[in-house]
Amino acid sequence: MASLLSIPLLLLILANSQQICSTSRFVDLETKREKLDLVQEKSHIIKSTQFNPAKVTQLSWHPRLFLCEGFLSDKESDHLIALAQNKLQKASAINIGSGKNTHDLQNNTNSCVSLARDFDEIVSIIEKRIAAWTFLPKENGEDMQILHYDVNNMDAIQYDNYNATFRPVYGGHRIATILIFLSTVTHGGETIFPMSVLKDTQIKDSRWSDCAANGYAVKPVKGDALLVFNLHPNATLDFSSFHGDCKVLEGEKWIAIKQIHVKTFVQNQPLIEFKDDCTDEDDSCSQWAAIGECQRNPVYMLGTPDYYGTCRKSCGAC
């Protein structure tokens, strides 16, 4: 009888043992799955810092201009916009609280915020990707600038404010500029290069704005990026890299700008020196600059150590 009673007891012990083993096996599987997810997440982060040169197209040699399609993902583009909007809203709230006159995001001619290289993980990833593309150290770059343009809030072409004066304390000359489009503009908002040798060879139809006829133009497409070198290979200034933005006619334009210098850029130094003598000596300077005279006639337009240029302001020399 005792042996008959021990049989169910033995079966019960075996059943419990199998249940414990199954539970242990389930826990092990869950742990392995979590570890696998973590490895995949880290792998994605590592891959996202890498740059794929197959996506790059050379647009021009004068200036040296390159387009990378899909440089940022939609999520990365949206993340930068969200960061900019958050900083703009905080700045607006501070100004309102202090009683200062302020404009909201929609009413500004352009709204601009700066993001430090290590602002967050995604910004840091993008910075590493830029360094991989340009082969230039992150330390040579200024803070990333995020700009926003609304419909018809620019009265004229907004040109890059490039100061050609050599300033070693700021890392020397700017060697390259990265323009990253964070949104696709329905109409207008093109980036133009008025001194490009290709400006008269580019065929444009009704999909381009009238402003785009002023130079070689690139349409803003979300995630795409432009790399333009501001110096020739012999380290002299390349005035054909001078560029501007056409006004937005439909939609809105978000763009990230990264400016890179030949040496380490000191972030805590003021970048722009405002001087009262930064003027044009002729009323036609802006027109001359738009048709490329800064490049064709730099001595007269920009000047030399012995001669004060006639159109230093329009040529972006100050």
Automatic annotation (TrEMBL):
One of its GO terms (molecular function) is L-ascorbic acid binding. Keywords: Dioxygenase, Iron, Membrane, Metal-binding, Oxidoreductase, Signal, Signal-anchor, Transmembrane, Transmembrane helix. It is a single-pass type II membrane protein. It is found in: Endoplasmic reticulum membrane. Its EC number is 1.14.11.2. Residues 108-262 form the Fe2OG dioxygenase domain. One of its GO terms (cellular component) is endoplasmic reticulum membrane. Residues 278-318 form the ShKT domain. Its cofactor is L-ascorbate. Its main location: endoplasmic reticulum. Residues 1-17 form the signal peptide. It catalyses: L-prolyl-[collagen] + 2-oxoglutarate + O2 = trans-4-hydroxy-L-prolyl-[collagen] + succinate + CO2. This is procollagen-proline 4-dioxygenase. It comes from Dioscorea cayennensis subsp. rotundata (White Guinea yam).
